[in-house]
Structures are given as structure tokens and as C-alpha cells.
């Protein structure tokens, strides 16, 4: 008979060293993006934990939590926001700079997580 898996802590997947370096590079690029778009650096820290709200899925169960966490910690969504900002700039509209702010903060959060060794969660 096998023991039931430990459900007291969310499971983690180890992040290889190359992904840690990549995460640090992404976090650095996010700082540059933030400064180049005219926002203050402190926004990175003010919004840092907002992206961890995706962990609320763990209140349901580990599978829902892992799916929510992985969706909130992938580069796809901030890339979409950044592309929207780029499109707005191409159309000569600077009213959408909030997209760049959120994208930069989101990139920074994911990059720091990866640099510290936090990776995607397994779905079991």
C-alpha cells in the first residue's frame, strides 16, 4: 500500500541553472522596459505580489492551484500586453502606457521567481 501524497505544501518543480539565468535576464529587461516607458522603479515592488494571487487556486485543490499558478507565471500574458502597447504606439496612441507598466511588472515577477528557483507546478 502506498502512502497518500503530502498535500500540506504546494509541489514545486526544480528550475535548472540556465532558466535561473534567463529569469534574471528577463527581470533586468523588465526594469529597463519600465524605466524607458517613464514609470518609477518602485512600481515593480508595489505590484510584485499581485501576480501571486494566482496561488489562490490552491484553496480549491492542488490541480486547480497548479493550473492557476502556471497560467499566472508564464510569459505569454505579459507578452500579449506588451504587444498591445506596441500596437498602440504604432497607432500613435500613448494612452495605453498602463499596458507597459503591467507587462513590465509581470515580467519582473516571473523573472525573479525563476531566478530564485521557483518554476512551474506539476498538475498532480
Secondary-structure element sequence? HHHHH
Q: Which ranges are low-confidence, i.e. pLDDT below 50, for 5 or more consecutive residues?
A: none
Provide mean pLDDT, rounded.
Answer: 89
**Overall domain count:** 1
The main pleated sheet reads as: none
Q: What distance lies between the first and last C-alpha atoms, to the nearest angstrom? A: 19 Å
Structure classification? mainly alpha
| Range of helix content | 55-70%
Estimate the global geometry from the Cα principal axes.
Answer: elongated
Radius of gyration: 17 Å
Number of strands: 0
Number of helices: 5
How much of the sequence is in beta strands? under 5%
InterPro entries: DUF4260
Organism: Micromonospora matsumotoense
Protein name: DUF4260 domain-containing protein
Keywords: Membrane, Transmembrane, Transmembrane helix
Can you offer a commentary on this structure?
By secondary structure, the chain is mainly α. It has one domain. 56% of the residues lie in helices and 0% in strands. The chain has helices at 17-36, 43-46, 62-72, 76-90, 97-115. α1 packs antiparallel against α5 and α4 runs antiparallel to α5. The chain is elongated and about 60 Å long. The two termini are 19 Å apart.
Q: Which terms would index this structure?
A:
single chain; 124 residues; mainly alpha; elongated; membrane
Amino acid at each position: 500500500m502506498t502512502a497518500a501524497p503530502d498535500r500540506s505544501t504546494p509541489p514545486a518543480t526544480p528550475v535548472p541553472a540556465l532558466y535561473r539565468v534567463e529569469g534574471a535576464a528577463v527581470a533586468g529587461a523588465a526594469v529597463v522596459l519600465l524605466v524607458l516607458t517613464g514609470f518609477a522603479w518602485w512600481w515593480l515592488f508595489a505590484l510584485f505580489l499581485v501576480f501571486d494571487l494566482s496561488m489562490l487556486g490552491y484553496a480549491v485543490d492542488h490541480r486547480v492551484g497548479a493550473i492557476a499558478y502556471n497560467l499566472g507565471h508564464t510569459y505569454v500574458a505579459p507578452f500579449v500586453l506588451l504587444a498591445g502597447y506596441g500596437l498602440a504606439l504604432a497607432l500613435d496612441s500613448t494612452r495605453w502606457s498602463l499596458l507597459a507598466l503591467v507587462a513590465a511588472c509581470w515580467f519582473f515577477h516571473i523573472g525573479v521567481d525563476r531566478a530564485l528557483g521557483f518554476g512551474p507546478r506539476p498538475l498532480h
